[in-house]
Amino acid sequence: MSNTRNTIKKHVKPHIPKDIITELRIIYRIVMEALYSIKRTGWVNFAIVSTLVAILTIFGALFRTSISVSTFAQAIGSSLQLSVYVKPQYDTNLLAQSISHINNVKSVKITPKEISWNKLKKELDMPDIKNPLPDTIHVQIDEPKNLETVFQQIKTLNGVEDLNYAKDIAKKMEIFNSVVQTVTIIVIIIAAILTITIINNTIQLVIQSRKDEIEIMRLMGVSNWYIRTPLILQGAIYGFLSAIISLLPMSAIQNGLNNVHHFFMIPSPIFADKLVSVAIFILAIIFASGGSILSIKKHIQV
Length: 302
Prior knowledge:
Layout: H1 2-11, H2 18-41, H3 44-79, E1 81-86, H4 92-100, E2 105-111, H5 113-123, E3 136-141, H6 147-155, E4 160-164, H7 167-209, H8 211-219, H9 224-263, H10 272-299
Antiparallel strand pairs: 1-3, 1-4, 2-3
Helix pairs in contact: 2-9, 3-7, 3-9, 3-10, 7-9, 7-10, 9-10
């Protein structure tokens, strides 16, 4: 033992403070203790990790789908327009200016009745009659959810003979988007509960198997954080490993959603794939560590 210590001292650089070496040794011991606890858990590790992978994959799939649905809703909403038909003899430019001042109106475009009539005559075999069409103002809205609000405001303006838009499509997209977002939030809550429960039970088993060892460390005056940290780290390791493995099925899911975007010629959200991956890691590590912390507070008084 004495020879080993002398050998270590010879390899320690003189400019490195001894307290740093001590801290590094403590960190090493904590990591090794966490890995040893995982090793002692045995085949249960497979059940823990596989369950967490399934939970994280479901969460990731719904979260990524929610982002895509929101993007589709925005794209479809931006293509939806309010068509405002102007009363005869009313100043179309004046009405367009009034509409442009309404909140949530992105842009307005005037289509004179002559252009609409000439286009209609090219598409259909129309008799040579006086142009019956009104001037039309096409109103672009910033977000689909604001269509109905803007619709009601324009309806009250002078000079508006009639107006319409694809109300059913906008409403269905808004409802579908809300449903997906709500389901995603519910899945996050369920994932949190399941992850914390699984890790809690696992750490409880570890604590029970090391009950005598923990008691001896307490009697020897070992600091509380030294006893807690390996157990918390064990939960974090479970979460980290599960997150890494869950990226494999998530890669296939995200590629499928990107292909759907490509098929409909709607750009895939920027950084969506990376955002989902980061969210999976954060969710896994925080909830897994949280399960460990709850178990520690419940089963050992340190």
